[in-house]
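Let's practice the habit of predicting before peeking. Look at the sequence and jot down your guess about where helices and strands might fall. Then scroll down.
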Amino acid sequence: MTNKLLGILGGTFDPIHLGHLQIARNLTQQAQLSAIKIIPCYQSPHRQHAIANAQHRTTMIKLALAEDATKQHHQDHQSKINFELDEREINKPQISYTVTTLEELHQEQEKQKVMTGTSWSLCLIIGADVFAKFHLWHRWQRILQLCHLIVVARPNLALPQLDDAHNELNQKIYSHIITEPSELRTKTAGLVWFATINPIAIAATTIRNTIKDGKSAAIFLPMTVWKYIVEHNLYR
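Done guessing? Here is the structure:
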């Protein structure tokens, strides 16, 4: 029975930008992910409401992934990245809880395993800053039972330090840190791998503020996404 790794990259994507795509590309190559699901949320429990509505954000993601696929087609030397847009969260007008989505995905993968004989491990991709607040997530203990964590950290950046009030999280997570991404295939869930990459220094907030100031943000975005933003006068 084969075992594959499915990356889960969630977020507001307001808008999706080149930094998101670069992280996905790096992790696909380092961890040998078979695919990455892009899952835009309707409303994050930890952030303010998105500026662009659900339809605009979804369309921009579709444009970005289509443009990336075209570039990959003309660059055979690069490893192919299988992106999948998953709209389950953004189509529900409510707070999007990661644990709920992971439970649904886990059930779906179990059905696929019975039908195809292929076993999948879910790998949730989060930033090191988010990891430091993981204990605040809804049912975080259950999340560790459903997936691995891939934490994106900058080179030479120390692991986030959690205070003594969260000993349960310290013991649960730090005892499951691995050093090689190949180890993600040895268990179905519960492992934590810190991927040290050099992500492009782009933040969606900076992009929105740049556009609001009447300046071009084209350098930070897939060209089709920038054209869409201009055409629909977003973030002004």
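How did you do? The chain has a mean pLDDT of 88.
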